[in-house]
Specification:
CATH architecture: 3-Layer(aba) Sandwich
Shape: globular
Protein name: UPF0178 protein DFR61_12019
Order of helices and strands: EHEEHEHEEHH
Strand order of the largest sheet: 3-2-1-4-5-6
Family: Belongs to the UPF0178 family.
Radius of gyration: 15 Å
Number of helices: 5
Oligomer: single chain
InterPro entries: UPF0178
Helix content: 40-55%
Pfam families: DUF188
Strand content: 15-25%
Organism: Kurthia zopfii
Structural class: alpha/beta
Length: about 150
């Protein structure tokens, strides 16, 4: 059965994701590290010890082909795509095999600029309309996942 996995550390759409997953009768699993706490009645919460990428590796271990993963982490997105899962970020952008290489390359360039002492722009402030956009895209992903 398809499940929704949420990389919840710093994720503004945890509650929306769980509510929408419930509409499709999809179980939700929230992953976070010990510095965060979630109490979401309609989801399973898995708290992982702090450590570099510990939550990402726990998600990767549990995700299965056809699952939906909510994350803003390009590296994690690339790994779950390789396992055949569907992946979306908090703004409703779906990560695909067609766009992940470009996203990873852009991230790499930003890191090189910052390491050299340069500055890069941070993300724009999240607007309320982003939740509606996310919800619509997440619904489309759920419908696709169920049909697979």
């Amino acid at each position: 059965m398809v499940k929704v996995t949420i990389d919840a550390d710093g994720c503004p759409v945890v509650q929306i994701s769980v509510e929408l997953a419930k509409e499709y009768d999809l179980p939700s699993v929230i992953y976070c590290d010990t510095s965060h706490q979630f109490d979401v009645p309609d989801a399973t919460v898995k708290t992982i010890s702090k450590g570099a990428d510990a939550v990402d590796f726990a998600i990767l271990k549990d995700v299965e082909k056809g699952d939906i993963v909510v994350t803003q982490d390009y590296g994690l997105a690339a790994m779950v795509l390789a396992k055949g899962a569907l992946c979306i970020d908090q703004n409703g952008r779906e990560f695909t095999n067609e766009n992940i290489d470009q996203l990873l390359f852009t991230r790499h360039l930003g890191q090189k600029i910052r390491q050299a002492g340069g500055r890069t722009k941070g993300p724009k402030k999240r607007e309320k309309s982003a939740n509606e956009i996310y919800g619509n895209k997440f619904r489309q992903l759920c419908e696709r996942a169920i049909k697979q």
